[in-house]
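Exam prep: given the inputs below (a chain plus flavin-adenine dinucleotide), describe the expected output before reading on.
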Amino acid sequence: MHRRSVLKSIAALPLLAAPSAPLPAKPGSRGSLLRRVRPSDPRWPGAASWQQLKQAVGGNLLEVHSLFSPCEKEPAGASCREVAGNISNPFYIGDQPAGTQVSGWLDAWTPAPSVYAVKARNTADVVATVNFARKNRLRLVVKGGGHSYQGTSNAADSLLLWTRSMNGVTLHDAFVASGCGARSKPVPAVTAQAGAMWIDLYEAVTTRAGRYVQGGGCTTVGVAGLVQSGGFGSFSKGFGTAAGGLLEAQIVSTDGTVRTVNACSEPDLFWAIKGGGGGSWGVITRLTLRTHELPPFAGAAWGSIKAQSDEAFRKLLAHFVGFYAQHLYNRHWGEQVAIKPDNTLKLSMVCQGLDNSQARRVWQPFFDWVRASPAVFTITDELGAGAKPARRWWNNEGNHSMIPDPRPGAPDYHAWWEGDQEQVGAFLHGYDSLWLPGSLLQTSQRPRLLEALFAGSRHEEIGLHFNKGLGGAPADVRAAALDTATNPAVADAFALAIIADGEGAAYPGMARAPMDPDAAHRDARAIDLATAELRKLAPEAGSYVSESNYFNPIWQRAFWGKNYPKLQAVKKKYDPDGLFFVHHGVGSEDWSADGFTRL
Ligand SMILES: Cc1cc2nc3c(=O)[nH]c(=O)nc-3n(C[C@H](O)[C@H](O)[C@H](O)COP(=O)(O)OP(=O)(O)OC[C@H]3O[C@@H](n4cnc5c(N)ncnc54)[C@H](O)[C@@H]3O)c2cc1C
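Solution:
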């Protein structure tokens, strides 16, 4: 018999379906909430209770099955063909209750469907779900865009609160946060419901209204997940983190209370959701973010250069880092370069606020220097730079770098960057990140930086994501980031170094070539070795909570630095019983790794 049928039949037994009573507290325990219930537990809610919840949420309670479950039942069936045919489409994955945008992480987590999901339509549905989960001692999971690398938006034996259908976007000419009155002057802003993706905001704010909102680089990331991460996009060097732009949010807390939080109302909770990590504070139902004047142009610089020897590669790195420090370390330039073990430097840089000729002029001296030594440097992908009107940045019509959602009926602006394709459904062998202080760009420090970049890149490719460090950004942008829960190291970092590896989609039940566990473990080890080289530069370097190592043993300090004790205090105040649990989230040290047992 199918496992799910067994669980369902257990839950349906009348004797076992009695309304839940407090679990017996062990002597010396901290109250009744010691253990959450699973479907195999006698206290799992019975069919009648689930029916009540279903009615309360307008029928939007769904049974959840793993993405490839149709293929287990009927490999040649239409449902199996549908999922297999769409698994490279991040919008399709996001539309599935069991969809996770990565397909797992070696030795860390495997996608596991919840038992049920509430596909919430509005705040009332969220309140009903939170109250049901709390009263019945369920493991509650919240999911928006499903992009958690750490797997924090899926869990076996849980109830899923899924915000996908809450995706409205509204623009404001003059927004004042509730209760702030005369204390703050009206500003242009955008309000998004929690399940909106960044492409929904970019369409409304930039393509249609000609303004800018700071969000994420990947178009299908969820708005609430990104803001609670801190959140970086290609233009963050100019506009800061997504969290830094938050003006107000509505959040349903553990007791079912709907709170409007901003700088004037419950400022401690407001501060915590700005970078304190998703899934730890309550369920955010809507967010209002500041919008900015759109710079007239946005552009890029691209290409790949392969050095013919280690010595030449060191020379190339030194020249590039010097060029970066002098010409690119400013509000205009973000995104990344990849430093590869085969002595290749790949450029994937993005800019805003420079027109086509300005962008080209900036890069010309570097390109000339590379081209002057053809025997030493091979250009493996043509070098170039340029810009176009920023209003067309996210308009996928005629934008050859974007792939539109091909499904019939999909909104025509739903598209993803070609450069993000590799990540769709990826299975991670390892991942780590660290913020590299801007002081390393000083001439006296540069030799250490170059040595570490070279040594680290012997093990694994190192990505320097310049837009994910705010060193070189305007003072007000850095100040706004320092007024969030994100590790303050972000404000002085010239880049976030990301070292990661993995393979194509490997969802449970998916037909694919078997994984080579030895090779996967070798990758994980190489990531550790490369990170260790960089850590020599900055032993206390922070790490970006949402793009970090699942196994980081000092995650509290790494993700939040000196902000962690304050975050713990906010957690105790608003969620003392820990209804909102995620792996390496604030307060998660009080729980077993699966979030079911209080330690
Ligand atoms: C392919 C890919 C590209 C990425 N690109 C970027 C990028 O450009 N910039 C960047 O900064 N980060 C990036 N990330 C990291 C990403 O921003 C974070 O993982 C973010 O938290 C994802 O939000 P989500 O809603 O899409 O994911 P989810 O997995 O749905 O949610 C992430 C976390 O937030 C919680 N959460 C979601 N919605 C709510 C809500 N309404 N209320 C309370 N908690 C909620 C979830 O419980 C979970 O713990 C990327 C990740 C992937 C996989």
